[in-house]
Amino acid sequence: MASPLSDAPLVGRVIGIDDATPLEFWVAVAPGQTLQLDDVVAMDRILPTGEILRIYGLVSQVRARHEGAQFQSDVFLIADGILPADVSEAALVQPTRFEPEILLPPEPGCAVRRATDAERDLALSFDDVDRRLPAGLSRDAEPVFLDLDFVDGTKGAHINISGISGVATKTSYATFLLYSMFRSGALGAAAANTKALIFNVKGEDLLFLDHHNTNLDETQAARYRSLGLEPAPFADVGILAPPRPGDPNATPNTGSRHTGVAPFYWTLHQFCQQRLLPFLFSDAEDERQQYTIVVQSVTAELAKLPDAGDGRVNVNGRLCRTFSDLVESIEEILIPDDDEERVDPRWSGRAVGGGTINAFVRRLSSSVARVKDLIRSDTDAAAAHSIDLDRHQVTVVDIHSLHDRAKRFVVGVMLRQAFDAKEASGSALPLQFIVLDELNKYAPRDSSSPIKEILLDVAERGRSLGVILIGAQQTASEVERRVVSNSAIRVVGRLDSAEAKRDEYGFLPTVQRQRSTILKPGSMYISQPRLPVPLLVEFPFPSWATRSSEADRSGSAGSRAGDAAVSDDDLFSGLT
């Protein structure tokens, strides 16, 4: 039996009556000591050669029992002092690292100590990570890091976050990781030019990233500092919102923020020249319909139309200023008034019947009410209008008020714009991060669409182009496997119990799957390639406002409310 080779206090010994394997083993907790879930431990085994094998691990389960009792009812006799018995506590340890890498179990009776400081870094493989990205705090308030090489495309890329809406705080954690990347120094000088595109899909929670959070108290601020971060809002944020319905001036449609917001829309010429029509046909059933032939033909013909001034287009002699004008012009070409007039096959596609054309026209006409305010050339600023995703470090695109069909159009078009720009640049730097919640709507598992094809491109080729996806969804089982599997970093917040049993969460050991169904807001499991065991982290409450009521409008860069302490449960309630 090996004796302790460290001065660290003994917290237990490896149990001899339960099998010890290189994958897991039980440790009897020493009298007067405790081991809790997520504690990091270390032990030494002396090999026959005299070499010392150091084994590090993470506590994943803890049990307590009476030794000497035979029946369940014996607990009453033991409690009354009638029947002698001892209380035994034991912890299940999942090894995280072997130094050197000799995969042997610890010997029974092996002394176990708590891993701290440099040993903890060794146990969690932080010691040889050159570019540490703060990812949160452990249960004992120690920093937890991600290897940035597996985020920025050096060795891997993309982050996928799963969890129940409103409880798992998926978007809050995604924005925290962005903040960490911009402020931790992990990106070095590249951070200044790194961009982020965030789609705000629910409420107006992300429209105040550039405002201090008045609910942030000094306790939460100290958690940022323990991660090497200074609590503050995002420094350079641009907010884009759709125009108000029917507003001839295209005023941004926001309910709680009225300054620093710009409208986004596309002129008719941009819509035609950039071949945006297919993004109006991005429902799951569209790709299975024959009228997609007509979609491609009409798209090709629209791309040939010249700019008629101020973003307008001329279709067969008709000057179009609104999307309704454009749709009516297309209808006149595809369904002429004279029944004997032949439809131009360049617009309809060859060998396409009248039923297919009618199906396309019905679908196109139904889109007018949904997107007419997003595709227009009827404003004074239309000709000069353009969407610049590089103007700010963080660009938030608010789509929460749009119909689902309009949301898919906006997401698809802006994703393609960002991806095409990076592809044209020919360089992975500066990095372009994309934060998209409700990923299951845009990259569903069992269907195809133009948006899904772009997301697959981002997942499979984005690493080499410097396009990094931070995707989130309630149920990873409903998202295209290739999108999820290409994410080097997997994050799980609170899960539905049925969802937790799905194969998509196979990276979580059984105990962690069970715990994921009861996680509190602000707690996440992180799986990264460097570590064989997922780590539980708690991330600080956002130092930027997540709603209008939290926004500090005084303009002070350092103002925080903070005399009264607020519990974590209260702080994270309502976050997405």
Blueprint (SSEs and pairs):
Blueprint (H helix, E strand, L loop, with lengths): L9 E5 L10 E5 L10 E7 L5 E16 L6 H6 L6 E14 L11 E4 L2 H7 L8 E6 L5 E5 L11 E4 L7 H14 L11 E6 L17 H9 L10 E5 L19 E3 L4 H6 L18 H11 L10 E3 L2 E3 L2 H12 L10 H4 L5 H18 L22 E5 L5 H22 L6 E5 L2 H4 L7 H16 L1 E7 L7 H5 L3 E4 L17 H7 L6 E5 L7 E4 L29 H5 L4
Quick overview of this protein structure:
The chain is α/β, with parallel strands linked by helices and 576 residues long. It contains 15 helices and 20 strands.
What would your notes on this structure say?
The protein has 576 residues and is α/β, with parallel strands linked by helices. It has three domains: 114 residues, no CATH class; 265 residues, P-loop containing nucleotide triphosphate hydrolases (Rossmann fold), CATH 3.40.50.300; 104 residues, no CATH class. It contains 15 helices and 20 strands. The chain has a ten-stranded mixed beta sheet. Strands 1-2-5-4-3-6 form a six-stranded antiparallel barrel. Strands 7-8 form a two-stranded antiparallel ribbon. Strand 7 and strand 8 form a beta hairpin. The two termini are 52 Å apart.
Number of domains: 3
Any guess at the CATH architecture of the largest domain? 3-Layer(aba) Sandwich
Which shape, going by the Cα principal axes? elongated
The radius of gyration is 29 Å
Provide tags for this entry.
576 residues; alpha/beta; Rossmann fold; ten-stranded mixed beta sheet; 15 helices; elongated
